[in-house]
Amino acid sequence: MVESVVSEAPGSSRVARRRDRRKAEIVRTATTLLSAQGYQGMSLEEVAERTDIAKATLYHYFSGKDELVGAVIEALTVDVNARLEAELDRVADASHLEQLRTLIREQVRILTDTAPEVATLFSWPKSWPESFDPMMKDSRRRHDAVFRRVVEAGMAAGEFDCPNADVALQCLHGVLNQSSLWIRPSLSGERRAELREAVVDTAARMFSPPSSGPR
C-alpha cells in the first residue's frame, strides 16, 4: 500500500533507485508498526531493526520520527486515492449512482481486506501529536474530494436527492469507518462479501431518490 513513496524517474541512477527502494521499505515497516502500536509505540530503533539497518543509517532517509510518520500518512493517502480513482475510471460511463456505489465498495474493501492498516491509522487512530492535525485534515480533505466530485455531479444532474452534500458526506464517511468494525477477519469470505454489499446498498440510499428503491 505504500509503494507510491518511491518515484523512480526513467533516468535515475542505480544508486538512486536503490535508495528509493530502501526508503519505501522503511515506510512499509513504519506503517506496520504504526498500525499495530500507534504513534507512541512506534520507535525508530524498531523500524531500523526490522529493516536491518543501523539507526544512524535511518537518518540518511528521514530526519526523525515525525518526518517518517508524515511519509506514511502521505503514502497511504496517495495509494488509497489512486485506487479509488482507478475504480472510478473503470465506471466512468456509468450513472453517478453506480459510480458512487463503486467508490463505496472499493473503500470498504480497502478498509476491511486489502489495506486494513488504513482503518487503523485513519478511521480509528490512536493518539497523535497535535502537530499532525493539519496533515491528517489535508489527507481527509483529499479523500473526501474524490467522493464529493461524484456526489456534486449527481446532484447537478438531478440524479441524487441530497439536500445537504456536506451532511450526507459526513454520514457516508462515518458509515465507511464503521465498516472495519462490522466486517471482521474472523468472518467467512462469503459473509464478508455479503456485508460489504449491504454497506454499499445502505450507504448509497443516502443519496439516491426515495423512488429508486434498493438495488
From TrEMBL:
Where does the HTH tetR-type domain start and stop, copy by copy?
A: 20-80
List the keywords (alphabetical). Answer: DNA-binding, Transcription, Transcription regulation
Q: Which domain of life is it from?
A: Bacteria
Q: Does the keyword Transcription regulation apply?
A: yes
Residue stretches in coiled coil: none
Work out whether the entry's keyword set contains Aminoacyl-tRNA synthetase.
no
Residue ranges of the DNA-binding region?
A: 43-62
* Chain spans, region Disordered: 1-20
Under InterPro entries, the record lists: Cro/C1-type_HTH, DNA-bd_HTH_TetR-type_CS, Homeodomain-like_sf, HTH-type_TetR-like_transc_reg, HTH_TetR, KstR2_TetR_C, Tet_transcr_reg_TetR-rel_C_sf
Matching PROSITE patterns, A to Z? HTH_TETR_1 (PS01081), HTH_TETR_2 (PS50977)
Q: Which Pfam families match?
A: TetR_C_24, TetR_N
- Which N-terminal residues, if any, form the signal peptide? none
Q: What is this protein called?
A: TetR/AcrR family transcriptional regulator
